[in-house]
C-alpha cells in the first residue's frame, strides 16, 4: 500500500498538479461569481452568458488571460452585433441561423481572433436560439454581461495566487539533467564489469526517451517565461527578498539538447566498436569509466562533493597521449570517447558551478 501511496503523494505535491488544481478552482469561482452577479444584480435573462465568457477567458497565466480576455470580448461583442443585425433585418429562421454560423466561423479565422474567434459563432447561437424577440431590446445588457465575465476572470487570476511557473520549469529542466546523469552512471557501472552489447540498446532507448521529453521541457520553459509577465506575485517576491541571478532556461535546454546528441554518440560508439569488448586498455578503462560515473553523478545531483570533471579528463587525455603502447587502431576510438565525455562533462561542471553560485547567493 505504501508503494502505491508514495508516488501518488509525490504526484499530488508536484507544481504542475497543484497549479492545475488551483486553475480548476479559480475557473469555477469566476463562473460562479459571474453567474451570481448576473442573476442577483443584473437580473439577466441569459445568466449563463457571463459565466461562459469567464470560463473562456480564464487561462494558466495572467498575461494569457489578458490576451484571451481581449480576444473573447471582441469576438463575443461581434457575435452579439451579428445576432442583432440578422435578427432585426432578416428575422430568425433556419437559413438566417445558418448564415450567422457561416459568418461567425469565417470571423473565427481572423488571425488576431483565431484563438477565441469561435466566440462569434457560439454567442450568436446563444442569442438566436434563446428567443431573439425577447433579447432584441437588451443589446447593451448582453455586452455588459460579456465584459463582466472578462473582468471577473482577469481579476480572480490576478488576485488569487497568480500563476508563476518558474518552479515547474526548474524541475522539468533538472529532471532531464538527472535522467542523463543516471544513464551515464548506469553505463559506467556496466562498463566496469563484463561488456554486454544488449545493454547499449537499453541505453539508447532511454536516451531517445529523454530526447522526446525535451520538447515538453521547452513548452514548460516558454510557459514559465509567459507566467512572469503582468504578474504582481513576481513583484511581491522580488520585494520580499533578494533575487538570485536569473536562470537562462533556454540556454540550459540548448546545452541539454547538445548533451543528448553526445550521449547518443557515446552509446553508439561503445555499441559499434568491437575492440572495446576484448581489448580495453586497463589504465584508460579504469580512469575513463570513473570519470563517466562522476559526470553522471554530478548531473543527477549537483549537490555532491565531486571535483570538476573537465580538468581531470584533460589530464587523462595528456597521459594517454604519452603512452607509446597504444596502437593507431585504438586512438581514434579513445579520442571519440574522450571527446564525447568532455562535452558531457561540461554539462556536469556547469551544474556544479550553478549549485555553488546558488549556495553563495543564499548565504549572502
Automatic annotation (TrEMBL):
Membrane topology qualifier: Multi-pass membrane protein
Transmembrane segments: 33-55, 62-86, 92-108, 115-132, 144-161
InterPro entries (alphabetical): ArAE_1
Predominant location: membrane
Subcellular location: Cell membrane
Keywords from the named record: Cell membrane, Membrane, Transmembrane, Transmembrane helix
One Gene Ontology cellular component annotation held by this UniProt entry: plasma membrane
Protein name according to UniProt: Hypothetical membrane protein
Taxonomic path: Bacteria, Bacillati, Actinomycetota, Actinomycetes, Mycobacteriales
Amino acid at each position: 500500500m505504501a508503494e502505491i501511496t508514495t508516488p501518488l503523494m509525490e504526484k499530488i505535491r508536484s507544481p504542475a498538479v497543484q497549479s492545475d488544481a488551483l486553475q480548476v478552482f479559480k475557473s469555477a469561482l469566476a463562473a460562479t461569481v459571474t453567474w451570481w452577479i448576473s442573476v442577483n444584480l443584473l437580473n439577466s435573462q441569459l445568466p449563463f452568458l457571463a459565466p461562459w465568457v469567464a470560463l473562456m477567458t480564464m487561462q494558466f497565466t495572467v498575461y494569457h488571460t489578458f490576451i484571451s480576455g481581449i480576444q473573447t470580448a471582441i469576438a463575443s461583442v461581434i457575435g452579439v452585433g451579428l445576432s442583432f443585425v440578422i435578427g432585426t433585418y432578416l428575422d430568425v429562421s433556419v437559413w438566417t441561423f445558418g448564415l450567422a454560423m457561416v459568418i461567425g466561423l469565417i470571423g473565427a479565422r481572423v488571425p488576431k481572433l483565431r484563438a477565441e474567434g469561435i466566440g462569434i459563432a457560439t454567442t450568436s447561437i446563444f442569442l438566436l436560439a434563446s428567443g431573439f424577440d425577447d433579447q432584441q431590446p437588451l443589446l447593451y445588457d448582453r455586452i455588459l454581461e460579456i465584459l463582466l465575465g472578462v473582468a471577473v476572470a482577469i481579476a480572480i487570476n490576478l488576485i488569487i495566487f497568480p500563476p508563476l511557473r518558474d518552479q515547474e520549469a526548474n524541475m522539468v529542466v533538472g529532471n532531464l539533467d538527472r535522467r542523463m546523469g543516471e544513464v551515464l552512471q548506469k553505463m559506467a557501472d556496466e562498463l566496469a564489469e563484463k561488456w554486454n552489447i544488449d545493454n547499449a540498446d537499453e541505453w539508447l532507448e532511454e536516451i531517445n526517451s529523454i530526447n522526446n521529453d525535451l520538447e515538453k521541457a521547452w513548452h514548460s520553459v516558454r510557459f514559465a517565461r509567459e507566467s512572469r509577465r503582468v504578474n504582481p506575485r513576481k513583484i511581491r517576491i522580488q520585494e520580499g527578498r533578494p533575487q538570485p541571478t536569473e536562470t537562462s532556461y533556454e540556454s540550459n535546454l540548448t546545452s541539454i539538447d547538445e548533451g543528448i546528441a553526445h550521449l547518443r554518440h557515446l552509446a553508439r560508439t561503445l555499441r559499434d566498436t568491437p575492440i572495446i569488448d576484448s581489448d580495453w586498455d586497463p589504465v584508460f578503462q579504469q580512469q575513463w569509466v570513473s570519470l563517466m560515473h562522476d559526470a553522471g553523478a554530478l548531473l543527477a545531483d549537483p549537490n555532491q562533493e565531486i571535483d570538476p570533471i573537465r580538468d581531470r579528463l584533460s589530464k587523462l587525455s595528456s597521459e594517454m597521449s604519452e603512452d607509446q603502447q597504444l596502437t593507431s587502431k585504438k586512438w581514434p576510438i579513445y579520442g571519440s570517447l574522450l571527446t564525447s565525455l568532455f562535452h558531457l562533462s561540461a554539462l556536469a561542471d556547469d551544474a556544479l558551478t550553478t549549485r555553488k553560485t546558488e549556495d553563495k547567493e543564499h548565504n549572502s
